[in-house]
């Protein structure tokens, strides 16, 4: 029913729902293009930052598996489906360690990784990682640049305000060259600017009621290759499994959409995946 190139799933993979191994296998069997895993290392018990979605923070946010561990297990039982972080909170991860995790996962998956990154929304979570919320975009920028240096060079050095290291060696290198595609997550103008300057694409969070965001998606997708670069991708995430949303994004020229299924029991999840697959096949 749609001309959109790729349709995947983005999920909060937890210890209560369908595990990453089974989920990846079921998605690959149904012809989905990708599986993206969200991340929160923890949720502070005394949290003042409001949930961006409004209301009470859903319980799966407290229970997410580490995305690199989850995706590594998925890589071991699949051959085609691409594996993504949606998103990895790169400002909260040490870039030397994260560079190793990314390279290892891209290596064992034979180049199937897509690295979605972001600065995060939970200020108390950031502070527990030693990140000043006011500086999170600057920290993210240096972390991304430091990782690129590690992946590209046999000997890597970086001298920034938030990250500094001298003459390190780190293997494996990523299977994809010079590195897996990096996409910036978020729907703000700051996120778009960061994506255009430091990444290979943008991952806006779809909201049918947000007219300016939908226009921004359409405008960016409509830019010619000379303006945004032929390799720059737009992947809309959190898309509801509705024909109208899928059709709008297809017509806008989005490269891929990531549908967010409900957090359900295993049996209900299989029914949900079948229902979504029927919309896109």
Question: What would you say this structure looks like, in words?
Answer:
- The protein has helices at 20-29, 67-75, 95-108, 123-128, 136-152, 189-198, 211-222, 225-228, 243-252, 266-280; strands spanning 6-11, 34-37, 82-88, 113-117, 156-159, 164-168, 182-185, 201-203, 233-239, 256-259.
- The model has no long low-confidence stretch (mean pLDDT 91).
- The protein is globular, with a radius of gyration of 18 Å.
- It contains ten helices and ten strands.
- The strands form two sheets. The chain has an eight-stranded parallel beta barrel, surrounded by six helices.
- The chain starts with 5 loop residues before the first strand and ends with a helix.
Number of strands: 10
Radius of gyration: 18 Å
General shape: globular
In helices, the fraction of residues equals 25-40%
What is the CA–CA distance across the termini? 7 Å
H/E element sequence: EHEHEHEHHEEEHEHHEHEH
Q: What fraction strand?
A: 15-25%
Average residue pLDDT: 91
Largest sheet: 8 strands, parallel, barrel
Short summary:
The protein is 38% helix and 17% strand. The chain is α/β, with parallel strands linked by helices. The strands form 2 sheets. An 8-stranded parallel β-barrel has the order 1-2-3-4-7-8-9-10, surrounded by 6 helices. Strands 5-6 form a two-stranded antiparallel sheet.
Tag the structure with descriptive keywords.
281 residues, alpha/beta, 8-stranded parallel barrel, two-stranded antiparallel ribbon, 10 helices, 38% helix, globular
Task: Chart the SSEs and their pairings.
Blueprint: E1 6-11, H1 20-29, E2 34-37, H2 67-75, E3 82-88, H3 95-108, E4 113-117, H4 123-128, H5 136-152, E5 156-159, E6 164-168, E7 182-185, H6 189-198, E8 201-203, H7 211-222, H8 225-228, E9 233-239, H9 243-252, E10 256-259, H10 266-280
Parallel strand pairs: 1-2, 1-10, 2-3, 3-4, 4-7, 7-8, 8-9, 9-10
Antiparallel strand pairs: 5-6
Helix pairs in contact: 1-2, 2-3, 3-5
């Amino acid at each position: 029913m749609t001309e959109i190139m790729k349709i995947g799933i983005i999920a909060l993979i937890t210890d209560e729902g369908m595990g990453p191994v089974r989920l990846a296998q079921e998605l690959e069997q149904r012809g989905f293009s990708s599986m993206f895993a969200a991340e929160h290392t923890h949720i502070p018990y005394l949290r003042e930052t409001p949930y961006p979605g409004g209301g009470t923070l859903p319980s799966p946010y407290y229970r997410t598996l580490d995305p690199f561990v989850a995706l590594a297990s998925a890589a071991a039982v699949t051959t085609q489906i691409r594996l993504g972080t949606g998103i990895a909170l790169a400002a909260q991860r040490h870039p030397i360690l994260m560079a190793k995790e990314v390279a290892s996962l891209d290596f064992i998956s034979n180049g199937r990784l897509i690295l979605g990154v972001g600065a995060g929304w939970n200020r108390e979570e950031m502070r527990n990682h030693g990140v000043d919320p006011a500086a999170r975009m600057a920290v993210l920028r240096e972390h991304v640049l430091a990782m690129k240096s590690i992946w590209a060079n046999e000997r890597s050095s970086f001298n920034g305000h938030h990250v500094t290291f001298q003459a390190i060696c780190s293997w494996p290198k990523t299977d994809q060259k010079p590195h897996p595609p990096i996409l910036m997550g978020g729907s703000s103008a700051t996120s778009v600017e960061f994506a255009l300057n430091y990444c290979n694409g943008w991952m806006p969070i779809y909201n049918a009621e947000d007219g300016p965001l939908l226009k921004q998606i359409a405008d960016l997708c409509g830019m010619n290759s000379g303006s945004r670069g032929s390799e720059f991708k737009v992947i809309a995430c959190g898309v509801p499994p509705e024909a109208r949303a899928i059709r709008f994004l297809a017509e806008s020229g989005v490269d891929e959409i990531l549908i967010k299924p409900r957090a359900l029991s295993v049996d209900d999840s299989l029914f949900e995946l079948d229902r979504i697959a029927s919309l896109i096949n």
